């Protein structure tokens, strides 16, 4: 049997995360002496130095301390999961689950996932956080999210993922635009027209990449960082835009009609993925949500979804 305790490992992780013994003590609601004594006893038990204490400058983990920190983080997480599972006798999924979602995808994806959790696993405490495509992957890697949903664009290394669905870009026009009478529109035909660019990562990069692939330079007259404002400006005749996310209604908040047209010839679609850190073993709760989302992408895709999960 190991002669160290989970409490000692908890204190080690807390000190490493906080950067000092006093700060860790505050977060743990114990005295600095208790934390320092636990670390000293852990070092004595393991016969190695785990951190260098620098007066007035906090602590720095030794290479061995860093190794133990990484292993201890996983062990403490697993211990917490074991406690949650044991409390329910393994009969149901219990505990917290934090899901991040790209802001423009959230209105069409999150309600379906939330409904499924509420109906199938009501003991899961689901928290949803929305954010930008750039923000969410880094929050995953930092450990503040269990899962995230976003586009397969500009993702950092260190993530695993599953495909939920593909999302072809489309042209959004004022209802009375001459091109609205056709079923599809080419980027070349729109090049001289005033364009409103959704300047929100990764939308702008993807849109400009489509024009570059087509050998066309768009006539950008306005940039916005708001999805619905972009739609509203188009509806009121200030230009056209290229979008990926497809609301079910072809009208704006104020009821003004829009025309949705496919791009011809077809362009590369965006891919919507559910992702998580590669080096983190998913909890049973997270695994269940991944399985449901992957198997039911048609319920999440605005082009194909039905009224709700079966």
From TrEMBL:
Pfam families: HTH_1 (PF00126), LysR_substrate (PF03466). One of its GO terms (cellular component) is protein-DNA complex. One of its GO terms (molecular function) is DNA binding. SUPFAM superfamilies: Periplasmic binding protein-like II (SSF53850), Winged helix' DNA-binding domain (SSF46785). InterPro entries: LysR_HTH_N, LysR_subst-bd, WH-like_DNA-bd_sf, WH_DNA-bd_sf. Residues 4-62 form the HTH lysR-type domain. Keywords: DNA-binding, Transcription, Transcription regulation. Belongs to the LysR transcriptional regulatory family. This is DNA-binding transcriptional LysR family regulator. The keyword Transcription regulation applies. The keyword Transcription applies.
